[in-house]
Amino acid sequence: MRTPHKPILFLWIALISLLNFTSVAQPVDTSAWLYSPTTGMMQRITRGGVLADSFALPMPDTTFDALPNTVVASPNGLTLAYVARATSAVNKNWC
């Protein structure tokens, strides 16, 4: 005797399989940030080599006068982090 649960189980497995195979991949919008420590300019270049955005890093206030050596971009590229420096500041090494 055949149980009615087997055809229903088979239909659910088939439906779930179809849903997995019909998903549409989203296009990836990749870009890279370029930084020039001599000028403080940030440039975002797209995958095709097109300049998408360009600006100079702002200094927090007038006590900071030296551009950072490095800038870090967040994984999604929307947030940038850097450390401003003051050339008149005295560096201290703590032992």
List keywords for this structure.
single chain, 95 residues, alpha+beta, two-stranded antiparallel ribbon, 1 helix, 5 strands, elongated
How far apart the termini lie comes to 83 Å
* Number of helical regions: 1
Strand order of the largest sheet: 1-2-3
Specify the helix fraction band: 10-25%
Structural class: alpha+beta
Measured by DSSP, the beta-strand proportion falls in 15-25%
Largest sheet: 3 strands, antiparallel
What radius of gyration results from the CA coordinates? 27 Å
Order of helices and strands: HEEEEE
Q: Total number of β-strand segments?
A: 5
**Uncertain runs with pLDDT below 50, 5 residues or more?**
none
User: What characteristic shape results from the CA principal axes?
Assistant: elongated
Give the overall pLDDT as a whole number: 76
Could you characterize what this model shows?
With 95 residues, this protein is an alpha+beta fold. The protein has a domain at 31-81. It is built from one helix and five strands, in the order H-E-E-E-E-E. The strands form two sheets. The chain has a three-stranded antiparallel sheet with strand order 1-2-3, with no helix packed on it. The mean pLDDT is 76.
